[in-house]
Amino acid sequence: MTRTGRHFLQIPGPTNTPDRVLRAMAAPTIDHRSAEFGALGLDVLAGLRRVFQTRAPVVIYPASGSGAWEAALVNTLSPGDGVLAFDVGEFAKNWAECARRLGLDVELVPGTWRRGVDPEELARRLARDTDHHIRAVLVVHNETSTGATSRLPEIRRAIDSCGHPALLLVDAVSSVGSIDLRHDEWGIDVTLAGSQKGLMLPPGLSFNAISAKALAASRTARLPRSYWAWEPMIAANRSGFFPTTPATNLLFGLREALGMLDEEGLPQVFARHLRLAAAARAAVRGWGLEIACEREDEQSAVVTTVMMPEGHDADRFRAGVLDRFNMSLGAGLGRLKGLAFRIGHLGDFNDLMLMGTLSGVELGLAACGVPFRRGGVAAALDALAGPTSDAPARGC
Ligand code: PLP
To answer: Which one of 174, 176, 196, 229 is most buried, counting C-beta atoms within 10 A?
Structure first.
């Protein structure tokens, strides 16, 4: 089928890359040992610290988010160290598996995939660990597969409440630049992220923000590491350079994307995501469908995972939407495969893009014969135009 018009990329990452960022990347590659590159390096490293809300070093790897998982683990831990992880979704499970393959002793707390990490369960597990075998707690801030956002400040307090010294390692791949995350204030030891979601870039960069405690741990950690080693990276970064060939053109794009976040202001970026997410959920409730994340205070600002009515295949529905409306929706992952689809509402995204997306879903439900109530799109419009709307303040 011929597809006309612009493609709607409504998966929860990679997100739509703004034209400004695409244009910034379409520039001749420069010498990565030149003074011009050093200035670029210092610029993007400073901008990243603003977005991670930290004064600590943030390092950049030419890698996908999984590289940042491995970097966080191999720099801080030794073979056989205990790691506490929570099976709250596909990415949490896969990060735990990465730790296991690296030779760590992983305790994976079972979960329903309908909510985030339970801070009370975390405190109970740590309180039992009186000999401090557990050296790190792994938490996925925003679980992109289920649309559940874990409550990091409560998680920090849970660790502190039992006086446990474990490092707090946080996967913020789908939250950095979209959902408030305060690396320093919330006492996170490593915050890791990727370029392809809230940072509005194509895939290919990933990040570790490193606390002083994590850096100290890296000096005695014994897991083998070479490419991922923090020390040479941090040393070269002091003057804006990298120990290996950096992804120069992605860094051009990163400078532009960080500029866009600065221009809008981080609080406004977070508020925009919250508002659009509330409208997306109003649509799902209007259709009479079920949101995967069952705790309202954990429902994600960047992705809504929608359960399909029983007997209807989510992948068939997504294929129908792509064919008819030229829109990609996110697949259900892992144990949600075929049972759920995901609406991404993050990055360079606004009211009309959301309404186009939700219209595509509503039309698709009807076209594919999925049982639903009409009125989800209207409910989302009401949510956008409601008391939280800033239109009157702008005087239009
Ligand atoms: N963590 C989360 C929360 C993710 O959403 C993803 C990918 O979507 C990853 C980790 C893995 O990142 P990548 O696929 O870039 O390696």
So the answer is: 174
For residue 13 and ligand 1, the question of a CB distance below 6 A is answered with yes
State pTM to two decimals: 0.97
CA of 273 to the centre of ligand 1 (A): 19
The pLDDT of residue 180 is above 90: yes
Residue of 97, 174, 346 with the most ligand 1 atoms within 8 Å of its CB, for mutation? 174
Predicted local distance difference test score (pLDDT) of residue 396 = 59
Cα of 64 from ligand 1 centre, angstroms: 7
Q: Which residue, judged by its Cα, is nearest atom 13 of ligand 1?
A: 65
Give distance in angstroms: CA of 375 to centre of ligand 1. Answer: 33
Please state, rounded to an integer, the average pLDDT across all residues of the chain.
97
One-letter amino acid for residue 255 of the chain? R
CB atoms within 10 A of CB 385: 12
From the CA of 67, how far away is ligand 1's center (Å)?
Answer: 10
Task: Give the pLDDT score at 90.
Answer: 98
Write out pLDDT tens, residues 101-128. Answer: 999 999 999 999 999 999 999 999 999 9
Cα–Cα distance list, 351 to 70, 260, 275, 277, 363 (Å): 37, 18, 9, 10, 18
Contact 250, 47 (CB under 8 A): no
